[in-house]
Fold each of these.
Amino acid sequence: MEAGYPIVKSPVSCAATGQPMVLVPMQRRDFIALLVSAAAVSPLLWPLAGRAQQGDRVRRIGVLLGTTQTGPEPVPAFVQELRRLGWTEGRDVRIEYRAIAGDINRFRTYATELVGSVPDVILVQSNPGLAALQQETRTIPIVFVQVADPVGSGFIESLARPGGNTTGFTNFESSMGSKWLELLKEVSPRTARVLVLLHPETAANMTFWRAAEAVAPSLGVELKMTGVHDAAEIEQAVTTFSREQHGGLIAMPHTVTVVNHQLIIELAKRHRLPVLFAFRYSAVAGGLVSYGVDADDLYRRAAAYVDRILKGAKPADLPVQAPVKFELTVNLKTAKALGLTIPESFLLRADEVIE
């Protein structure tokens, strides 16, 4: 026997031979053969062990978007922040997306599907999306983004202590209604009549309307409200309004105006109407001006809340937060087509000027 190698016990005596158990020295070649054999078998077992450990760590996130965004990662800022916080899709987290892609009626269907899959947490964007989810579950944690007036809309009890299973990040303060009207008047001073496209059943939209209505006289603007629910109502309202001169448009933030923003831009161009939107992408697409929250910042902050919930925090204990970053965007190409000269002071304040 070579020193340093183990002694292996032979089988215990059997009834056939009656021989007692003996100790058999293991030769070096036998020991090496045993190691080779073990090495050949163990890799077959390693993946099974690895998958078992990974399965224990996988968390599931549902995402419901009130937009037309599609693709494997329709909210890249959210996914990027999750990665920074240590969550990697396919390894320890799985994300399931639903985007209504222009059909508001899909909210209820997708809310039912996501809740039925029993995720650990759901991220939702927009007021109607959150309303649909809360009809489906009061237990699965929900983190919302771009939701206006969540208290007035009945989604939460208070900003500081939301209660229930829902928390998140608001979109706009009520005073934004007056701010939008002031900005439209600043970039288009000749505008004397403004048509406000809004969703009348959404409490936040009506709050914005009242704020705009309060400052309209001081700006010398006649304000008109029209409730819209689909593309046909938008087209009819804008076409009728455009028959008189010196008009302008404000598209209040709501899923119906978001999914139809390209139609609103085309109608404004056709009837030579300056139009203000709440989101940057509409100004980039051809709207005259936009002013609103930095959506990427909200999604990054929402990822931090999702991270905390996955680690055991309760939504009821996470205060609802207001936006901290805003974007002012103006499209000079559209301004030129309308015959407008944007004041230099306005351009200096803008976060983005599209040439």
Note: The chain has three domains: 1-39, 56-172+295-317, 176-293+326-354.
Amino acid sequence: MHEMALAESMLEIIEDAARRSAASRVTAVCLEIGALSRVEPEALRFCFDAVARGSLAETALLEIITTPGRAWCMPCGNAIVVSRLGEPCPRCGSYQLEVSEGEAMCVKAIEIA
């Protein structure tokens, strides 16, 4: 489960930011996950709860925003929305797609006290 490693990395980023701001605790975290990132949001939420125990983020609310995947279809030249990898172009049926957005995961905001 790579979500555990992702949760550990997230916690490191969050705690570093909180310490730089001299915060006593983290109250909320907003996370953006691309639809094509291969990250399961609920598994990540479970892992974050586990790794955050005893940390500045132990009681933090985790908000997860899923962003759509986007790709460019090589044969028809259209920019399209893709909900998962391996789908064909909805306009021409081609599988020759170049993903342009939706593969990333990013900590967008950290609320501290």
Note: The chain has a mean pLDDT of 96.
